[in-house]
Amino acid sequence: MKKSKVLGLFLYVIMGHAFANDVITTKNIGLGLANDIAIASIQACQKQGYQVSAVVVDRNGVLRSAMRDDLAPRFTLQIAQEKANMVVMSGIKSGEFRQLRADIRPELNHIDGLIVMEGGIPIKAAGVKIGAVGVSGAPGGDKDEVCALKGVMSVQERLDFAE
Q1: The domain containing residue 153 runs over which residues?
Q2: Residue 18 in domain
Q3: Which one-letter DSSP state was computed for residue 29?
Q4: Rounded distance, CA 1 to CA 160, Å?
Q5: Looking at residue 116, what DSSP letter applies?
Q6: What are phi and psi of 72, to 5 degrees?
Q7: What would the mean pLDDT of 117-144 be, rounded to a whole number?
Q8: Nearest-CA neighbor of 145 among 69, 32, 35, 45?
Q9: pLDDT at 12
């Protein structure tokens, strides 16, 4: 009996990888939702008199939507995307990360595609991170963050009940 338990355990360990998932299913942000968040973020800033850009990336940092107000400087698109990328990398708001990791901020700002500034927030569907939005162009990252938050809040019901 002892040999059969040992043999069973041995086979389980050896064959365990055979039962591993070969295909992984994940949630990700769709184009329609990404566009709606970007538009709502820009409109939130327009109501405050700010011309901004909003960029939405998926859970892997892949660009899904990029929009620029007619009067926003072109560089705001790049900055907004880098803020969103920082959220994907850190998993938290870019402003929170900036406060928590001031010790490595200079080093991170030298990595292509990242910038440690306020204005990026995560996008979650039913509690699962599916992407991030970054906003740039308002006079201060705190104002960018408010617009990004309003953009996400505009579709919150869709996010809460996403399958």
Answers
A1: 27-160
A2: no
A3: -
A4: 52
A5: -
A6: -75, 140
A7: 97
A8: 45
A9: 63
**Per-residue DSSP letters for 121-149?**
EEEEETTEEEEEEEEE-SSSHHHHHHHHH
The answer to whether residue 62 is domain-embedded is yes
How is 69-112 classified by DSSP, letter by letter?
Answer: -TTS-THHHHHHHHHHHHHHHHSS-HHHHHHHTTTTHHHHTTST
CATH code: domain of residue 123: 3.30.450.150
Buried b (16+ CB within 10 A) or exposed e, 120-152: bbbbbbeeebbbbbbbbbbeebebbbbbbbbbb
At 123, list the tokens: 């996008």
**Number of domains forming the structure of the chain:** 1
Burial of 21 (0-12, 13-18, 19+ CB in 10 A): exposed
CA dist 108 → 7, 12, 126, 142 (Å): 51, 44, 30, 20
115 within domain boundaries: yes
The answer to pTM > 0.90 is no
Q: Give me 142's structure tokens.
A: 């705190």
Residue 21 placed within a domain: no
46-94 pLDDT, tens digit each: 999 999 999 999 999 999 999 999 999 999 999 999 999 999 999 999 9
Count of beta carbons in the 10 Å neighbourhood of residue 102 = 10
